[in-house]
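Fig. S4 source data, part A: sequence.
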Amino acid sequence: MWFFLVRSFLAGTAIPLFFFFIFLFSRGAAAQSPVQQPVRIGLTLGLSGKYAQLAGYQEKGYRLWQQDVNRRGGIFGRPVELMLLDDKSDPATAARLYQHLIAEERVDLVFSPFSSDISEAVLPVTAKNGYPLILAGASSDHLFQQGYDHVFGLFVPSSKFALGFLEMLVQHRIDGIAVFSDDSLFSRSLVEGIRKWSVRLGLKVVVDEKIVKGSGHFDALARRARDAGAKVVVLASYLEDAVALRRAFTAIKWLPRAYYVPVGPGTGEYQKALGQDSDLVFSTSQWEFHGKQSRNQPDVFVKAFEATYGQRPSYFAATAYAAGQLLENAVRQTGSLERSRISHALAILDAVTVIGRYGVDRTGTQVKQFYLIVQVQEGKFEVVWPPESLTAAPRFL
């Protein structure tokens, strides 16, 4: 080609000098453009609406990973660009936005939204288009029972969230559980697990009742738990309801021996809302930082997070960052952005992230990560289960 062009120019029979140099310039620009083009990763989060607070933590985790991977030179020398849209905490909106990101924006890869309900709405879109999806903000068992081969769990499935808490009840001979739950996919899965494990452990559920999420008037619920002789109250819902039910205990001048809420107390906002009344609540965490007892040396992550945002990260931020680590790991292993190859890599990957070990079974369910039961004690988050990770003994009234 080059010989023909030069000979033609010298012969004066084909291509003027001006067009010859335009051709050379365009060839050079074309050769450079793949390096300059960013790797675009799309996602939605509920930055407004009912999940705004927890989704906000996840945004910080994703953006910190983006900052760190770009500091390392990006992926294949290309900078990573997050295309993050607000799904308003609405499943239908999220599904529509993922379709937009994939079909119109043509993003290279995607991250997951927050919550099991919204993830369920998005999964058909990502599956249809062959995009692997690491669920960094969802844990319902139901998500892994649909036959999708492109979905990968990061959390322990929610049916096991409360198992460690129930084991502690058995060890301390505390029985009589009142269970209140909203109708979200996550809560349904968690309560199914509580029913199953309570039977196996010989614990009695004395109240099992649905609630209207966000209603805020829970005095009647507190009375039902008290009048049923409950020693333990489990609330399968989120932060707003966790605060409202704790206030209801105060209103009727009664406290259970143990109060467990799977999501909310671990963010710190629970303490801000309740002050000293936040003490002794139990919750589940996928990760906690406790200095020398931190798992898998996440100190660098914590230091970077604090330097960037001026606060200690919650596990929601840590799981989002971990999703970035896993996607980066799979991409580098495959040496490409081909989505089917990345899905295969994630299916067989055995890796360590800032939150612990990753590995999934054939359904995509997480099987190697372990979780923690935490309790607020005198304003601090303490790990009270499992025994090998204790930072303090559990306290019961």
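Fig. S4 source data, part B ends here. The chain has a mean pLDDT of 89.
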